[in-house]
């Protein structure tokens, strides 16, 4: 099996200013070299009127679709009436509404006694705050992370991230973190978890006593690696018995991506600290939360700070999203059934081609290619045919699908038709 010589989209299709002015660090616009303009639900239209089905959804920031009309109308009302936009962490009516609704619809029904911190508007901010807090609470420095983890681009978050190219970008040693094998790292041959347990308990194991373990229940950037429920439960139990804090990074898998609001609910565990961002505002507006058990709230006022921690338009759309989608269990059920539908179609694509397999949970589903470059080629062909999907994994060997959770069954079907054609064309 080889990747066919398919014409890949060319960056020179973009206006010159992208190459002459924007830094070389730009990335998504290289794979999707068109100028996007309008967006609604799961559809994007470029400046030439070409339509794309969006199975990328802002890397998971648009679980409720682009310009969701219910959220948009709340946002427009808020702005039209000159309600306050920027306020750092000053109290505002929009923030009161968000905190009250989050407690009522998300925390209380799940029996989660969490305090809410607004750490700054990005996922990396939420992770930095989580790591700092874990270190402050325990007085220990070391953090356990997992192979192929991704937690963000700031130095603390990078230190617990696996990808060697991204780590190298730090330019300084990334310390105080020890990687352990994620579930199924050895393809089920060895019980991966035992290594961690063993070195933790062995006085000759050489492991500094960790403050915390940070884990994704499904590794989105790492290749859609899905941790088994039993593995997550065993990890939570290990942390509890050894007095190590458990941080679940739910930046990409939270807000319903895997079905329930928090991705760890499937395992019945209660992490000590949780990070949320991406889809928490519901509208693609920057917002992040670090949640933790109330006993862990040892912050001094202002000890973790930031100018953009109280973005009121994000609170408004976040509150509306919670009220619209999380009052009942209906949205969770719909997501699970859409996820099963996507998975059935991916299994069928995988079954028709050697060296291709399907993986995922809920509405994060993926195809893994043994011939890694084929994944990139598939995304290139899919783009030419009007579908946005990105690759992930250490060798970009996985085509990852993150459609908005509100995508209709007809649109899911249409996107999967394009994907099936792209796979067939690539592997022909
Ligand atoms: N954690 C996880 C699990 C993520 O997927 C990401 C972003 N892909 C981050 C943290 C970092 O979020 P941000 O890009 O908003 O800093």
Q: What report would you give on this structure?
A:
One of its GO terms (biological process) is ectoine biosynthetic process. The chain is α/β, with parallel strands linked by helices and 428 residues long. The chain folds into two domains: 11-67 and 330-427, Aspartate Aminotransferase, domain 1 (Alpha-Beta Complex); 71-325, Aspartate Aminotransferase, domain 2, CATH 3.40.640. The protein has helices at 17-20, 28-31, 57-60, 69-80, 93-107, 123-138, 155-159, 164-168, 193-201, 229-241, 312-325, 330-351, 373-384, 409-427; strands spanning 36-40, 43-46, 51-54, 114-117, 143-146, 177-180, 212-215, 218-219, 225-226, 245-249, 273-276, 289-293, 356-361, 364-369, 387-388, 390-392, 398-401. Strands 4-12-11-10-7-5-6 form a seven-stranded mixed sheet, sandwiched between helices. A four-stranded mixed sheet has the order 1-2-3-15. Strands 13-14-17-16 form a four-stranded antiparallel sheet, covered by helices on one side. A hairpin with a 5-residue loop joins β8 and β9 (225-226). It starts with 16 loop residues before the first helix and ends with a helix. Residues 59, 122-124, 127, 150-152, 216, 220-221, 249, 251-252, 277 line the site of 4'-deoxy-4'-aminopyridoxal-5'-phosphate. 4'-deoxy-4'-aminopyridoxal-5'-phosphate (PMP) is lined by residues 59, 122-124, 127, 150-152, 216, 220-221, 249, 251-252, 277.
């Amino acid at each position: 099996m080889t990747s066919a010589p398919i014409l890949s989209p060319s960056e020179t299709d973009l206006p010159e200013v992208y190459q002459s002015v924007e830094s070389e660090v730009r990335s998504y616009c290289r794979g999707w070299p068109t100028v996007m303009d309008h967006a609604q639900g799961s559809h994007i239209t470029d400046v030439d009127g070409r339509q794309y089905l969006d199975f990328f959804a802002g890397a998971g920031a648009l679980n409720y679709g682009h310009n969701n009309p219910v959220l948009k109308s709340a946002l427009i009302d808020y702005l039209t009436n000159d309600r306050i936009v920027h306020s750092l962490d000053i109290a505002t009516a929009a923030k009161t509404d968000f905190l009250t609704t989050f407690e009522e619809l998300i925390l209380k029904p799940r029996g989660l006694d969490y305090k809410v911190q607004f750490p700054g508007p990005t996922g990396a901010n939420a992770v930095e705050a989580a790591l700092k807090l874990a270190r402050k609470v325990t007085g220990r420095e070391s953090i356990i992370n997992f192979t192929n983890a991704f937690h963000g681009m700031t130095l603390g978050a990078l230190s617990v991230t696996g990808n060697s190219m991204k780590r190298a970008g730090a330019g300084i040693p990334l310390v105080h973190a020890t990687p352990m094998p994620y579930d199924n790292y050895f393809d089920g041959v060895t019980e991966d978890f035992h290594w961690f347990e063993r070195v933790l308990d062995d006085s000759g194991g050489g492991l500094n006593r960790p403050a915390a373990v940070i884990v994704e229940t499904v590794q989105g950037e790492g290749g859609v690696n899905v941790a088994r429920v039993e593995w997550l439960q065993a990890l939570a139990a290990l942390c509890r018995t050894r007095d190590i804090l458990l941080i679940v990074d739910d930046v990409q898998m939270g807000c319903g991506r895997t079905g329930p609001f928090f991705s760890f609910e499937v395992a019945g565990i209660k992490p000590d600290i949780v990070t949320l961002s991406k889809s928490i505002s519901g509208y693609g507006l920057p917002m992040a939360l670090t949640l933790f058990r109330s006993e862990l709230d040892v912050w001094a006022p202002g000890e973790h700070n930031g100018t953009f921690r109280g973005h009121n338009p994000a609170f408004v759309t976040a509150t509306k999203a919670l009220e619209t989608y999380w009052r009942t269990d209906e949205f969770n059920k719909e997501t699970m059934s859409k996820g099963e539908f996507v998975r059935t179609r991916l299994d069928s694509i995988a079954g028709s081609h050697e060296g291709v397999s399907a993986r995922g949970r809920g509405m994060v589903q993926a195809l893994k290619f043994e011939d890694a470059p084929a994944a990139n080629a598939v995304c290139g062909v899919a783009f030419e045919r009007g579908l946005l999907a990105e690759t992930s994994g250490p060798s970009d060997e996985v085509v990852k699908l993150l459609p908005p959770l509100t995508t209709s069954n007809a649109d899911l079907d249409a996107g999967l038709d394009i994907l099936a054609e792209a796979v067939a064309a690539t592997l022909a």
